[in-house]
Structure formats: C-alpha cells, structure tokens
Design brief:
Layout: H1 3-18, E1 24-28, H2 33-42, E2 50-57, H3 64-77, E3 81-86, H4 96-115, E4 119-121, H5 126-138, H6 143-146, E5 152-157, E6 163-166, H7 174-184, H8 200-211, H9 213-244, E7 247-248, E8 254-257, H10 258-261, H11 267-278, H12 284-295, E9 300-302, E10 305-310, E11 313-318, H13 320-324, E12 335-337, E13 342-345, E14 349-352, E15 359-363, E16 376-380, E17 383-386, H14 393-397, E18 398-400, H15 402-406, E19 411-413
Parallel strand pairs: 1-2, 1-4, 2-3, 4-6, 5-19
Antiparallel strand pairs: 5-6, 7-8, 8-11, 9-10, 10-11, 12-15, 13-14, 14-18, 15-16, 16-17
Helix pairs in contact: 2-7, 5-8, 5-9, 11-12
Length: 414
C-alpha cells in the first residue's frame, strides 16, 4: 500500500475500533469506485469482523440492476456475502435525489436491523465532504450546516431501532481511493448520474474542479472549524436547556418556566425546541420572538408548533391544525395497527399497539382536554383506549421523540 492507502485503512480501522469494533459490518456498496475501494479495504478487517455488502437498486435508470449485480459479483470475488435492496413502487417526479437518498438509508437501516449489524459503513470521501460544505455555504448555512457530514451518526427505518452509521473515509481524497483501486487491480462501474448537470452535486463537483485543489482544502478546513463550533454550541445549548428546567412531556410537548424566558431567550435554542416539537425548521429570531410573546401571554404558531402560556409555564406543542386538518392540509389519515404492531406517527411518536386487539391511531382532537389535541390516541372502534401520559397502556404504547429530535440522536426515514 502507498502512504495514502495506509491512511485510508488506518482511518477505517480507527473508526471501527472507536465504536467498540462491532463484529458485523454492513457495507453500502454501489459498485462505483469509492464504495468498491471501501469493500476492498474492509476485507482486511476479517476475520475480526464479519462483512456483508448491501447494494441499493433505486430503479431510476436503465442499467441499475446490472450495476447491482456487478457489486454482488465484486463482493463474491472477495468471499463476502451480498444482497441487493430494491426501491419498489412509484417514484416522485420532483426531488428525486433527496427521495432516493432517504430511501437508501431506510433500506440500509432495515437490512442492518434484520442482519443484526453492529454498524453500517458508507464510502463518503473528503471530496464528498467538500462538495457538501460548498452546497451548504451557497445556502448560507450556519455552523451546523457547514460542519458537513458526521463521521458517526444513527439512522432508523421509521419506528425501527437506531442503527449506527459510520463514514470512515471522510478524511481520504477520492484520488487516493482511485489509486488504491488501480493498485489492487479492482474494477468498478461508473454511474452516468455522476455526470448529469441536472443534479446540484454534479454542478458543484465541476465548480470545485475548476477552482482547484486550494478551494477543496479550504472548504475541508472550514468544515473542521465548523464542527468544533457546532459541538460547542450543542454543549452550551444543552446546558442552557438544563438551566431552564425544560421538561419534555409524554404528549410530545415541551414545558419551560415563563419567568426564565422573558429576560433573554437564545434564538438558536428556541428554534431547536420549536423544530423538535413541530418538525419544521424555524428562524432563530422568529423563534425567540414567539417565546417572548408567549411569556407575555400571547399565543402564536411557528414551524408547525403552537407556542402559548399556561399558568407559569410556556408550552410548545404540535400545532393542532397540522394534524386535525385545515384549508389546504387534510387531517392525518387513521393508521391501523395490529396487536404488537409499531409505526412512526407524524414523525413525532413511536406508537405500539399494546392492547391485544386491532386498533387505529388518530389525533385526539379537541374533545379530549386532558391531553394535547395534536397527540395520538389508540382507538378501538369509537372508543379511545389509550393516549400519551394515560396510566396503563398509554405508558407503554407511546414514545415521544421530541427529546430525540432536539438532541439530534437519530435520523428516522419513513
């Protein structure tokens, strides 16, 4: 191996050992150059680690099935078991790349759960990181956006358990991975989508190539600085939240003491809380204004959340109209759950049918003042059988994800 190739293997090994050297690794391999390099590098972890290759066939272009078969053959040549995961069903007419990415992670998380993998590994390189940072810079992202992709994160298939996702090659340039492949004599396929200027990443890649090596180096340095700032902001905001005595409630809302909000509220913290509850990003300045208004007794809505005062507390809850329906936005449809079934509801709750009989999930609505109108209930026929915070079934059937979303613990794809 060259020095660059040794660096790639050392980074992969370090990331693997840093998370406890899990015995089962699911490798996301498309058959392209970077992921084929990941496959060959990871093969050296055996016999300490058991490997499995997962290839996602999105079915978006002719030849995708053959590329998946190529990836399976490449894995087989190294004695690694492989499986192709297919995105079946209708595809969106717009936002195809984002939808494909979400489905890819969902399928990988599902396979990782089924195979009981200790970690999913992807082949994102330093060049991918530089491209991501440049795209976010163009959108005027803050420190968290400019931090780029995380080397370690967690993803889930809807209500499924979190799966660790590692990107061990973020410190390795694409050229070094290509040199490693050439030296090993391994072949790979080229995705024609990587040259299609309709896609933003392709245009950004061309821009970076025109700007030269110094631009990529500067972007990677910017990303490293942004990650340090982002980590500091997370610690400061978490400490501030603790000092406020915030309570994440079973019904998916957050409660804050009004007397501590009025003097000064951190806009970034307010925006994170509103987004965690409502599900939509909120501008920091508007979020701070909404909490200050609530402290003064004025109710407002922002980012899919309702912000109001209740006694001595400010309560941030899901905006009822967002789930009960309003002009231009229909009411959330009932979801049928068989006994023992689980689902992700409104992106905010994991709901499990613990009742022993088929049930439906519906919003509680205004007829149940003992609970948040936008919270879910489990219904058997016309009878409400359980709701968040209710003693008995309600204590085990509903898991609010507001705290998980605030702390960015898991990205759930559904």
């Amino acid at each position: 191996m060259t020095a660059h190739q040794h660096k790639a293997f050392e980074l992969l090994t370090a990331e693997w050992r840093a998370v406890g050297a899990p015995k089962r690794l699911l490798l996301a391999v498309s058959g392209g150059g970077d992921s084929t390099a990941l496959l060959h590098l990871a093969a050296a972890l055996r016999p300490e680690a058991e490997l499995r290759v997962a290839t996602v066939d999105h079915g978006l272009r002719p030849g995708s099935a053959e590329d998946a078969r190529f990836a399976e053959r490449s894995a087989g040549a190294l004695g690694v078991e492989a499986i192709t995961l297919r995105w079946d069903g209708p595809k969106p007419k717009t936002g195809v790349q984002a939808a494909a990415r979400a489905m890819r992670y969902r399928l990988l998380a599902r396979e990782a759960e089924r195979w009981r993998s200790g970690a999913i590994l992807t082949a994102h390189s330093a060049d991918d990181q530089a491209e991501t940072i440049l795209m976010r810079l163009a959108r005027r992202s803050g420190a968290r956006g400019l931090a780029g992709m995380a080397a370690e994160t967690f993803i889930a298939d809807g209500a499924g358990p979190p799966q660790r996702l590692l990107r061990p090659l973020l410190g390795v340039r694409r050229a070094a991975l290509g040199a490693f492949l050439s030296a090993s004599g391994a072949s790979h396929v080229d995705d024609p989508g990587n040259d299609d200027p309709r896609f933003e990443r392709v245009r950004v890649r061309r821009t970076l190539a025109a700007l030269g090596e110094e631009a990529a180096t500067a972007l990677l340095a910017l990303g490293a600085d942004a990650r340090r700032v982002s980590a500091l902001l997370d610690r400061l905001e978490s400490a501030r939240l603790d000092s406020l005595g915030a309570i994440f409630r079973a019904d998916g809302s957050v409660q804050l003491p009004a007397r501590l909000i009025a003097p000064a509220i951190d806009g970034a913290l307010a925006a994170r809380l509103i987004s965690a509850v409502g599900g939509t990003p909120a501008p920091a300045e508007a979020a701070a204004a909404a909490l200050a208004a609530a402290a003064g007794g004025r109710t407002s809505t922002l980012g899919g959340a309702l912000i109001c005062r209740s006694g001595g507390a400010i309560v941030i809850s899901r905006e009822p109209a967002a789930v009960l329906g309003r002009k231009g936005a229909p009411r959330l449809a009932p979801v049928r759950l068989e006994p023992g079934g689980r689902c992700l509801w409104d992106g905010r709750f994991i709901v499990e049918n613990t009742l022993g009989a088929p049930a439906e999930i519906r919003p509680l609505g205004a007829d149940h003042p003992e609970a948040n109108a936008a919270a879910p209930g489990l219904w058997i026929g016309d009878a409400l059988a359980a709701f968040p915070g209710d003693e008995g079934a309600g204590e085990t059937a509903f898991e609010s994800l507001a705290a998980e979303r605030f702390h960015r613990r898991v990205v759930r794809h559904s």
